[in-house]
Amino acid sequence: MVVGDVSGHGISSALIMAAVRAPLRQRSYLSGSTSQIVADVNHQLAADVGDSGQFITLFYLSIDPVKRVLKWVRAGHEPAIFYDPATGQYEDLAGEGVALGVDQHARYEENEKGKFNTGSIIVLGTDGIWESRNSSGEMLGKGAINEIIRENASRSATEILEAVITNIRKFQEGLKSEDDLTLVVVKATDIY
Questions:
Q1: Whole-model pTM above 0.85?
Q2: N or C: less crowded end of the chain, CB within 10 Å?
């Protein structure tokens, strides 16, 4: 799973996203670690857009459902949220890494978390989720998102996602979002 957020808005940003999506998909089918995949895509993108000042933050997550292992690369993007309802513990899936398109020779760190429980929830999103504002200018914040996840942890991934979006809309009190809202929710189930 991959979530990215391009700097700026409009057609030029959409073109950058398209310029990343195709090579990322293609490179993901070849052998190599998550860090090699992201580094290769960055190398190509930085050569193309390095002088433009544009960049893309990215969170690249690979899940092995049999071994129950997560591997990820964080390239300047917000950490994903990992929640284990069995323990009630939250964890940011953090790590070092510069946004794509900034430094053609950047290296990326592969991070790993093993042995997650059935029912564990992973949430990837863009900053427009927790930076949503109400009519008073207050931001929703990650704490509120964590609480929505906790309150809906017994529900399906789709229902958790819908609960987050519903709560954001309610918090915004009818205001239009200033930034895009991209959200991915994954929930570990038993393997049959």
A1: yes
A2: C
